[in-house]
Amino acid sequence: MPGPTTLADDLLAELFDALWIEDVAGFSSRGVLGAPDPDGTRDYALALGPGHLRARVRPDGWREGVRYAGAARVETARESRSLDAAGLLALALDALPGLAPAIRERTRDEMAGILDDLPDREAAADALVGQALAGDPIAWERIAAWRDRPFHPLARARQGFARADSLAYGAEAGRYFALSWCALARDRLGIAPGADPAGPAAALLDAPQQALLAREMAARGLHASHVALPLHPWQAEHAVPGRFAPELRDGRLVILDLRGPLAAATSSLRTVALPARPGLHLKLPLDVRTLGVRRLLPPQSLHNGLHGAALLAAGLARDPVLAGSVGLANEAAFWHFAEADGGLYAERPGLLGCSLRRLPAGDGPAVPLASLAVAPRGGVPPALRAVAGDAPDLGALFADIAGLVLGAILRGACLGFVPELHGQNALVAFAGGRPRRLILRDHDTVRTAPDWLAGIGLPVPAYLVTDPLRNSLLLRRPEDLVAYAQTLAVDVALRAVAEAFAAAGAGFTLAEARRILVATVERVLDEAEAPRERRALVADCLLGRETAPFKEVLTPLLAAAALTTSMPSRLGRAPNPLVAGRRS
């Protein structure tokens, strides 16, 4: 059985693989491969600057090409030295003569920060696995965070956090922390249409804590004029004092003494779970940059989430199979700071506010899809063992998981929408040791093909978009909609689960995974109640083309002079793994 790897090993491998597939600095087009050895690995060499990059590679297993297998080093006339991820990235960046110095420095700093702040997975693994096997939902979220965004080598960068902050507030360390609180004047409060005008305190605090809050608000003379809102403690210390100084001076914003309840980060850094409130999550703005994005909570996105959720609900109402296999988290309650003019696109409203997420009741244990791709000690992922037993049938389970994921995303695509279905945004609910239902969360990026929606009478969401020409929510071509299904569901979420299952040493292979995916795509599209021409287009995109879209992450990051509130990415093309699965 393959043994566990270190986080540093995983980071180096993911960086090499991203450089290869995106052909950064000629990694794939100029790299030279040696003859295969009996174990299938090959030498790899690439001339970079005054020396050569050398490594061992192996067949990809997922698509045509190679993957990193170890022993990265740089060789010059004077020396040969091993490389970690920072060294490999520096070589690649130095081989891009047109790269702006500021971008080169920014990217190096991100990688250096990751390596400096890598948590000790090996030290935490035993306790974490024990908690996960005991059925602790927060432990499942922590396990998902160990993998973070699969196949994105800079996903762990958290600009703004010191190492102590990563330990205190990151999901990997699993520490609990007390929420901070503030009181915001009602004339500076924006509220979701169905949210409690009194704020979220009743949903978050127990009776003694509510009594403490009421006494403090009354003692400060704020009970009638202000609403209490929770703050992430890091945000309260580092972002609020400077950005809301005028409101703090004039009393429209007051930092309270109340602390609590205890919370812990989920696999999404800015979303926390509360052990005293199972099934309830709290999303808070956190002015830390991950994936090149400031993790704020813009009112624009909150309102888009209402429209996305309404469309998903309409789709479920139209398709009984979807209604029986997909559940939706309720994210309709939110509160945020509002500027005097009420504008939703200003920056400060995204820095202060919160959103509640209520998971649907009545399901069995629900684990993040991403947690099924993480095995800190090797072998079968512990989150899977917790819900399916110590010796599960990985082939049957992968088929069930693929059926849920592809059933949701392809049936939705045929209707005209695709949820943001990557491993962090979906939960798999188990019953009797088998996957039975998919629960979707984070509804603010439900992609749509408006013409397809209108063609069957589904509502076109009234999304708030700042750049109609570049927005990715209202897509002009159905092929672009299907591309999100391919990149998010197949090439990220299900690929990560397939690779973890194949690494478990239980006889499951990536070739088997691809065959299962092909059969599942064919079955789902055959059963979907949608116009035949739509199903044919979706089938052709997924199964009929030699290349498929994949999400480039390094190339657009290196092209971005300034980072915004959207993750730099673009769609590239690569060999289609499902075409290979169809042939095998």
TrEMBL record:
Record pathway: Siderophore biosynthesis
Record domain Aerobactin siderophore biosynthesis IucA/IucC-like C-terminal: where: 398-554
GO biological process, one term: siderophore biosynthetic process
GO molecular function, one term: acid-amino acid ligase activity
Domain Aerobactin siderophore biosynthesis IucA/IucC N-terminal stretches: 139-373
Superkingdom classification of source: Bacteria
PANTHER family, alphabetized: L-2,3-DIAMINOPROPANOATE--CITRATE LIGASE, STAPHYLOFERRIN B SYNTHASE
Name of this protein: Siderophore synthetase component
